[in-house]
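Form 7-S
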Amino acid sequence: MCIRDRSKAAPKRGIFVMNKWAPANLARQQQSASPLLAYAHRCSFSKKTVPVPSMGDSISDGVVFELLKKAGDYVKQDEIVAIIETDKVKVDIKSPESGVLVKLFAQQGDTVEVGKDFFEIDLAGAQPAGQAAPQQQKKQETAQESKPQKQQPTQEKPQQAAKPSPQQAAPQQAAAQQKAQQPQTHIGGTGGVNRNERREKMSRMRLKIAQRLKDAQNTCAMLTTFQEVDMSQAIQCRNDFKDEFLKKHGAKLGFMSFFIKAAVAALKDQPAVNAVIVGNEIIYREYVDLSVAVATPTGLIVPVLRNCENMSFADVEKGLELLAKKGKDGTITAEEMAGGTFTISNGGIFGSLMGTPIINPPQSAILGMHAIVNRPVVVNDTIVARPMMYLALTYDHRLIDGREAVTFLKRIKSEIEDPRRLLLDI
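Output:
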């Protein structure tokens, strides 16, 4: 007979969990729960909330102009999710990483503040199969469209129009005669009268432009002085060297560079035109940041060329070309429009003969260029036809006296009429 010694306990069954011995049943529970914990851990860290990015130093909010994606869409890294319109520019809001758009915290037309949550993205979201190869789908569609489709010839029997019976034709003729006898009360063209109206909400940029222009009228003591310029020498200089200029510098030689260089010389000669009133003080700027008015489909913008006193003709033309392209494409930034000590507006490109520009606050003056038109002028006691342009300088009379304004405009006139002065700095 075999007697088992029960004084020795059976070995415990279990595993080490977190450096501690755990019973087998607890170990099995934790092992079965580990996939759920891992999934929850992965889900909690795969979602990312993207805030409204900074849109410029002086911009604190904006309006959601357009939503290009909706919740549930898959977005790639750097893909545009929405467009926010500010007082100055439209800003593209891009996704920092690829994933599925889970939630949008704002809708189209809502006002959003910088730093607030804008959308949430799931980084673990998989790209749908339908979006994986859009190029292949396009190729297949184009291939199918390019294949000629066989059409079976069909024969259609000509249908004879049913002739109305005499009983039906009598009322129709009577109605036509009655309509012809009615008096015609419409006075005007032969077509229908259009009295339709269309109402649109003003954009943030247009509202800001309206506010700034009205503030300039209410704040500045604006006065405008005029001058006319003979463009003969500038035109001749441009025609002689525009091809060589383009070949060497890769930019077209325009008249704007002549006026910007002339304005820099005049601003150095009359520093009050480049100054600004701040409180009870006058700040004289020893640098020239020229704002250039550019018309865009969304409104007038005024990007800035920095430190024009150090620029050559080529630097000016390249800078203007870049700013104009960004303005038309809507990619110009708020920083590129901030600041500015003096503004030049060229209404002549639209055919304006003469006008009075409005000061771009907080600046103190603005130069208006106009169309070049052949007019009779007296040269050496002889009447000749010359290409003439009217110049207009609107200035803040609180800071700039008439003598300074007229002297400034005459300096620009002399520089343009004899471009050699620009080279000799006289």
